[in-house]
Amino acid sequence: SHPDLGFPGAAERVGRFAVLAVANGVRRLVLLSGRGEHGARQAEMRLQESGADWTIVRCAFFNQNFSETFVDAVRYGMLAMPGGDTAEPFLDVDDIADVVVAALTDDRHIGQLYELTGPRLLTFTEAAAELSAALGREVQYVPVTPEAYAAELTSYGLTKEEAVGISELFAEVLDGRNSHLTDGVQRALGRPPRDFADFARDAAAAGVWDLGEGD
């Protein structure tokens, strides 16, 4: 659910969609959810009550946020986030995709809730150090307030409502409540999750954060 299940009205939309899908013959539904979000838990409950053969994939903070959402921040070496010194088990989206494919194609995943994390906890300062090592130049993490982060997001074209919602969501889920590992990837796929360092190395090699001429 765009932009996030934690936003107002998302749970209701998920519930209506699930009921409509089941009424039209769709049996299996997989929900991408988030850890530690009250709104996301409400959406999960709506799916569970819909009558579908459901699987919930509850996810940690994506590795790929650094190569997509925050790509310019990493590229220019200044990652400003409202994350403080909280440790997060950053998760690779390829692992999410593999779990979702398994959930859609194998009956053993029906009725399962998989909480997915990466294999280790990293603070944003430590993640910046991993990115620096992969790039061969410094990426600095600068903690900012949710209000300052919302103002930055609006400067990139987000509406005030979207910017405030995202910044408040980050402040909520990065308060330490999710600073622990889970075995969701191993339980669903029988293999360990991908490490952040491997993601950073591959993204750097692909040129995601390359500087252009004059930079």
Throw out a few tags for this protein.
two-stranded parallel ribbon; three-stranded parallel sheet; 7 strands; 215 residues; alpha/beta; globular; 44% helix; single chain; 9 helices
Count of helical regions: 9
Low-pLDDT sequence parts:
none
| Termini gap | 36 Å
Order of helices and strands: HEHEHEEHEEHEHHHH
- Number of E-type strands: 7
Helix content: 40-55%
- From the spread of the alpha carbons, the general shape counts as globular
Largest sheet: 3 strands, parallel
Strand coverage percent: 5-15%
Tell me the radius of gyration.
18 Å
Task: Report on this structure.
- It is a single chain.
- The chain is α/β, with parallel strands linked by helices.
- Helices cover 44% and strands 14% of the residues.
- It has 9 helices and 7 strands.
- The protein has helices at residues 10-23, 38-48, 71-75, 93-105, 124-135, 146-155, 160-173, 184-189, 196-205; strands at 28-34, 53-59, 78-81, 87-88, 113-116, 122-123, 140-143.
- Strands 1-2-5 form a 3-stranded parallel β-sheet, sandwiched between helices.
- Helix 2 links the parallel strand 1 (28-34) and strand 2.
- Helix 1 (10-23) packs parallel to helix 2 and helix 5 runs parallel beside helix 9.
- The mean pLDDT is 94.
Map the helices and strands.
Elements: H1 10-23, E1 28-34, H2 38-48, E2 53-59, H3 71-75, E3 78-81, E4 87-88, H4 93-105, E5 113-116, E6 122-123, H5 124-135, E7 140-143, H6 146-155, H7 160-173, H8 184-189, H9 196-205
Parallel strand pairs: 1-2, 2-5, 3-7
Antiparallel strand pairs: 4-6
Helix pairs in contact: 1-2, 5-9, 6-7
